[in-house]
Amino acid sequence: MRLETSARLHLSLIDLNGSEGRVDGGIGIAIKEPSLIIECEENDSQTEILFNDKCNISNSDDEYTSKMLIASKNMQDYLGIEKHYTFNVEEIYPIHQGLGLGTQLLLSTGQLIAKLNEIDLGIYELAKIIHRGGTSGIGVHSFKYGGLLIDGGHRTSIKNDFLPSSASNVAPPPLLARYDFPEDWNIILAIPNTDNGASGTKEVNIFQSYSPVDIRDVERISYLTLMKLMPAVIEEDITYFGDAINKIQSIGFKKVERNLQSDKINNTINYMIDNGIPGAGMSSFGPTCFGITDTNPKAIKRDLIDLMDNDGKVIITKGKNHGACIKE
User: Fold this and answer.
1) Residue 199 confidence (pLDDT) above 70
2) For residues 121 and 172, what is the distance between their CA atoms, to the nearest angstrom?
3) Which of 82, 103, 123, 301 has its CA 20 to 30 A from that of 312?
4) Is the pLDDT of residue 59 over 70?
């Protein structure tokens, strides 16, 4: 069994105030690259994780292996089975870079086990088993559907604290809207070689320290999303779409995330905007920066590499309008 999925951009959380009875909410885009490709088959001895793509793993593979083994155990406990598998990771990208690998890795592991046992699970059920989607639902919904995605967050009666997905065990939020991302728009990923984005205890502490955010910021993000971002993607108006992103990136919890970054991150984003990229920002907690344009991005790719003093990576990709693919 072979499964292929890919990264996502997380543009912003919507509501880390919660005064109207909901928290979280997310805005994101599924992208074609970088990719995660895993093959899986049963074996007779013990579950093992093999990596063919060591060059894209930061430091050791221990964290990747641990996540997959936990997802495997959770799935088997839920299904009431005890089997052994060989997971061969053919292609992968680094974790904690703002591209959502953790969610894709866990969902992929769970989906492969389900399919090998001829069991069909809905995306909400699968995400609950592997404990993902407890804050933003963008990674879960991008795995299933692709495209531009907006989720509705969680009721405060279910989730009454400000926590990242890695520390929240509630079910994924409902998907409010999903649109095809325009095929003619290019996405530039600029990943400076700097500290990885916040995770673990550090990320929890940031959520706890900087929430709740001002309700006026939540109202502004909601307005920009409903009345500018969503119409712009439907009408394929990249100028309005980019302007919505730029404004959303400067308020609410995204402003907090951006303010905690090194100058290298914000200089990269500002460079893209100053050089004609309609919309640019930082995905999740970074360090991945992104720019969205309908022009040829090859020239600015070279400029961004120079700006980072060749100490980073630049990828040109596009939006992905379908979910994960699985083949026997």
Assistant:
1) no
2) 14
3) 103
4) no
Instruction: Indicate where the chain has its CATH 3.30.70.890 domain(s).
Output: 186-318
- Among 177, 188, 121, smallest CA distance to 147 is for 177
Query: Cβ neighbours of residue 166 under 8 Å, at least 6 residues apart?
Result: 102, 134, 199, 200, 203, 204
Cβ pair 127, 105 in contact under 8 A: no
User: E-assigned strands of 44-155?
Assistant: 48-51, 84-91, 148-151, 154-155
Give me the pLDDT at residue 298, please. Answer: 87
Question: Tell me, what DSSP letter sits at residue 182?
Answer: P
How many angstroms separate the CA atoms of 102 and 95, rounded? Answer: 7
Number of C-alpha atoms within 13 angstroms, CB side, residue 108? 36
CATH numeric code, 2-179+322-327: 3.30.230.10
pLDDT at 328 (0 to 100): 82
Q: What's the one-letter identity of residue 175?
A: L
Of 49-58, 65-74, 232-241, least confident by mean pLDDT is 49-58
Q: Which CATH architecture has domain 186-318?
A: 2-Layer Sandwich (3.30)
Q: Which two tokens stand for residue 184?
A: 């003619």
249: closest CA among 272, 289, 281, 285? 281
CA distance 228 to 225: 6
Banded pLDDT at 196 (limits 50, 70, 90): low
**pTM of this structure:** 0.94
Q: Residue 133 belongs to what H/E stretch?
A: none
- Rounded Cα distance between 56 and 59, Å, is 9
CA distances from 7 to 142, 237, 280, 318 (A): 9, 24, 17, 11
Domain(s) of CATH 3.30.230.10: residues in the chain: 2-179+322-327
Q: Which residues of 8-35 are buried (b: 16+ CB within 10 A; e: fewer)?
A: bbbbbbbbbbbeeebbbbbbbbbbbbbb
SS (H, E, C) 204-251: HHHHHHHCCCCHHHHHHHHHHHHHHHHHHHHHCCHHHHHHHHHHHCCC
Closest CA to 268 of 156, 161, 193: 193
